[in-house]
Amino acid sequence: MKKLILSAVLVLGSLSTYASEEITPQETKTVVAAQAEYTEVSAEAVPPAVKTALQTAYPGAKLDKAFVNEKKEYKLEISVGDQKATVFSDVNGNWLKI
Fold this sequence. Notes:
28% strand, 2 helices
């Protein structure tokens, strides 16, 4: 009987040892995607294909701001009614992100 009680104490004691161990945080790696730098351009500088795609996808949309990067990808800040959105297009009017 003493051996049974002693073994139960040892088992419980070893479980509490695991609970009291300091947990060290694992190394985390932060991956930062390089975002293309966009330069603001006037609405007149936006290619007609992009303007046509914008009016087709968002009838009545107003182009508030336009930006372009080295790859000739356009970032368009638009407003439709009281809603605002940012959409991305290539030079041919194909949507990249919506």
